[in-house]
Design goal:
By secondary structure, this protein is mainly β. It has 8 helices and 44 strands. It has a 22-stranded antiparallel beta barrel. Strand 33 and strand 34 form a beta hairpin. The relative contact order is 0.15.
Length: about 800
């Protein structure tokens, strides 16, 4: 029997929604039982009153979500449009077990079950793969964009490496765009803010260029929204804003039913005042009671700064003058060729992507000319995948293929110093020696117009062979087996340099103390230094039995292993410090069921995941660093995650549906006895035992609850109400588990209401959409303090937004 193909695309508008809990002390049992299979994408005709069935391509073929023996959450395009969910951060409020940190493109980190985040290191690859239209995104910054005109998003939990490509050892997010159609269809929407200035517009159109042979689909978006933080500096403006635009063009060529070629070209841009890190607290003492002698606050209390009081602890204001808008550019092109040769089906996926990132941040966040810092990144990737699928007899179907991938990155961290930098970065003794009127010119000359950089050029190449079979053992029992062999080759080089802004070489200020201030801040130049080349191979495997207990009840289990490749890395002095591969072993037990005459979909699974040599960016004491610490990419010996996830979707009436999703996640470090202590510890306590503590960024409890209700009105009108509520229990967001990194439990509520009307083959809708209705303050990332910076929240969530949306479908 042949692998089934997708039926014609019919967009479902299943009354999916979610959310509803808002008490920070949400009972544990409720967080677990309030769980949901976030269904929505392709509609398979269901009987009247049934929850609509969903087709997915989680295993590179079209099949019912309820027949796929893995934990999977699916969000349909209409649900995403309704909820205004266009970013990875938005998805985390709609899928259990998924979390993300998105302060900017380079520092974006995505995790499933608390595992997989990255933290601003271009050598480090993700453990949660993001795949858009069958193309793996190799740099996490490529996910920092609005994904629009999507048919569906599938969130697959647990290792997916045998079929879904590189670095999916913890899971994958698979996005599928709406395909070109041979009949005309279009959508146009415009949205404006009621409580803040904003302009959002999205549109798409599809039709045949040559009847039944060539079709196109074009889409575009603009997303502009006023920032949450008012800049009190004379430069003015608001920060934490959105200013994005982009588009996609697809061409579908079908010269015959058995042969198709789809070409896709896409781009997305940002130019926004968004890369902010509000300072929240600058501790006076360490946790042993000893007083910190040099802090951000004491530096700015020097008489040079004239009694200036910095902003610390505000969620609404910021003071920046050296910052510039954050610029990102994403481009991509792909070609997907599919040939149904009868006995087998062949697929070729060729793709290339480019990513550009340019951050210029006000490092100290004052109105003085102290320092501008930020990283410049340019990344290019190419990939080629060949797949072959078919049947080996009536009881076995298979997939096999080859995957080739190359990604090269040029990344340069930059620091530009102003005339006030010397007065800020000097030690107390150095400042006292130069603070008088006679020596103040030397204090200013120490760092004025100094430009320092650290540049790396990581290159990664890989090749893989993969295969998976599905064996129908009996009419009700099935066994899936998969394996993937991957080979990796990696190189890197690093160089540190310092010049003046005009590229001229540094020269002495004529004062030894001023020269010492400069030397401490910029460090010794080195390189270019070649890293230790990495050559590795890895095997990912899957054993996945399932049993159809009844027509609408599926039992399944799985054991799987995956690996995330190591990295060619360096320490703060430019010496080689390679990172070992990260290896995971995962076990799952689950049930999928449709009950109550298929008006209720109820799925549950338990999991146990172990990871060895977990790759993690940490902060380590460094006497050569001006802050006293330096970031280091390394390995945590062991972590473990185990828990329960429950998904449900119930159609209470033909007009009202309730969806829910929840998880309990006990994710801990099983071996991290030699962790660097947080900065609140005195120097006499350099290491801490973090064994047994909850993993950074992993809330124990997550709950999602929502509703969708539609009421018919007179003359072809209908009213539509929907809501979504997400709860997360407390968790620590600082990479060394600092006491200042704890985020209390919080809830986010989104609500909406609108009126629809159909006329002359078109549908019009006017809606009011409110996000974060109760204006919850929270962050998804915390930076600990140093001797020149307070604790910073560089992942603050968006505040309350209320908008009016007008949409037309035709």
């Amino acid at each position: 029997m042949r692998t089934p193909k997708s039926p014609p695309f019919t967009l479902a508008i299943p009354a999916n929604s979610r959310r509803f809990l808002h008490h920070p002390q949400l009972p544990a049992c409720y967080a677990l039982l309030a769980s949901a299979l976030l269904l929505a994408p392709i509609d398979v005709p269901a009987q009247e009153g049934d929850v609509a069935e969903v087709l997915v391509t989680a295993r590179n073929r079209s099949e019912r979500a309820q027949d796929v023996p893995i934990p999977i959450s699916v969000l349909g395009g209409d649900t995403l449009d309704r909820d205004r969910a266009f970013t990875v951060a938005d998805l985390t409020q709609r899928a259990p077990g998924l979390t993300a940190t998105t302060p900017n493109a380079r520092r974006t980190g995505i995790s499933i079950r608390g595992i997989g985040k990255t933290s601003g290191n271009d050598n480090m690859e993700p453990a949660v793969g993001v795949i858009v239209d069958d193309v793996f995104l190799g740099h996490v910054g490529m996910t920092y964009q609005d994904f629009t005109d999507l048919e569906r998003v599938e969130v697959l939990r647990g290792p997916q490496g045998t079929l879904l490509g590189k670095n999916t050892s913890m899971g994958a997010i698979k996005c599928t765009s709406r395909a070109p159609t041979f009949t005309p269809e279009g959508v146009l929407e415009i949205e404006g803010g009621l409580n803040r200035d904003s302009l959002k517009a999205r549109g798409s159109h599809s039709n045949a260029l040559v009847r039944d042979v060539l079709a196109y689909r074009a889409s575009a978006f603009v997303d502009r929204q006023e920032g949450d933080l008012r800049n009190i500096n004379s430069t003015g403006g608001r920060w934490h804003e959105k200013d994005r635009f982009g588009g996609k063009v697809q061409l579908l060529l079908k010269p015959q039913d058995a042969l198709s070629l789809k070409l896709t070209f896409d781009s997305a841009f940002t130019h926004e005042n968004s890369n902010t890190k509000p300072f929240m607290v600058d501790p006076v003492t360490l946790n042993d009671g000893s007083v910190r002698t040099t802090t951000y606050t004491t530096r700015l209390a020097r008489d040079y700064f004239g009694g200036y009081v910095p902003i610390i602890g505000s969620w609404d204001h910021i003071d920046v003058d050296m910052a510039r808008p954050l610029v990102t550019r994403n481009y991509g092109a792909s070609a997907v060729l599919t040939w149904d040769a009868g006995a087998v089906e062949l697929t070729s996926i060729s793709a290339a992507r480019w990513f550009h990132f340019d951050a210029n941040n006000d490092q100290e966040q004052t109105h003085f000319a102290i320092a501008r810092s930020g990283t410049l990144v340019d990344t290019h990737q190419i990939s080629q995948e060949f797949r072959l699928s078919g049947n080996a007899g009536s009881a076995v179907d298979y997939q096999t293929g080859v995957y080739l991938f190359r990604i090269d990155t040029d990344t340069m961290s930059r620091n530009t110093y102003g005339q006030d930098a010397g007065a800020f970065f000097a030690t107390n003794a150095q400042y006292n020696a130069l603070k008088d009127v006679e020596h103040r010119p030397f204090l200013q000359a120490s760092l004025r117009d100094v430009f320092s950089t650290v540049r790396q050029k990581p290159v990664s190449e890989s090749a893989a062979l993969f295969g998976q079979i599905n064996w129908l053992v009996t009419d009700r029992a099935r066994l899936t087996l998969g394996v993937r062999q991957t080979w990796e080759w990696k190189t890197n080089e690093v160089e540190r340099r310092a010049t003046f802004l005009d590229s001229s070489p540094l020269r002495s200020t004529g004062n030894a103390t001023a020269d010492a201030i400069r030397a401490t801040q910029i460090g010794e130049p080195y390189g270019p230094n070649e890293g230790v080349k990495l050559t590795d191979d890895a095997i990912a495997w899957l054993v996945n039995p399932s049993y159809q207990l009844a027509d609408d009840v599926l039992l399944y289990a799985s054991a799987s292993a995956g690996e995330k490749s190591g990295a060619v890395a360096f320490d703060s002095s430019g010496k080689p410090a390679n990172v070992r591969p990260e290896k995971s072993l995962n076990f799952e037990l689950g049930i999928k069921s449709s009950l109550w005459d298929r008006r209720l979909v109820l799925n549950a699974n338990v999991y146990h995941t172990k990871v060895r040599d977990y790759q993690n960016v940490t902060s380590e004491p460094d006497p050569t660093s001006p802050t006293g610490f330096s970031s280091q990419l390394g390995n945590v010996p062991g972590i473990r995650a185990r828990g329960v996830e429950i998904d449900a979707n119930v159609l209470l009436t033909d007009r009202l549906s309730i969806t829910a999703a929840g998880s309990f996640n006990d994710a801990i470090y099983t071996d991290w006895s030699t962790a660097t202590c947080p900065r609140s510890y005195p120097a006499s306590t350099p290491t801490c035992n973090n064994t047994g503590r909850q993993i950074v960024g992993a809330p124990r409890w997550t709950g999602i609850l929502g509703f969708d209700y539609e009421v018919p009105l007179a003359s072809g009108y209908s009213a539509h109400f929907f809501g979504n509520h997400t709860y997360r229990s407390k968790h620590n967001l600082e990479q060394l588990l600092s006491e200042y990194g704890e985020q209390a439990g919080y809830s986010i509520t989104d609500l909406g209401a609108g009126v629809r009307h159909g006329i002359a083959g078109a549908e019009y809708e006017l809606s009011v959409v409110a996000k974060n209705v109760f204006d919850t303050r929270y962050t998804t990332s915390v930076n600990d303090f140093s001797n020149s910076a307070p604790v910073g929240y560089d992942g603050i969530g968006p505040r309350r937004y209320v908008g009016v949306l007008l949409r037309a479908r035709f």
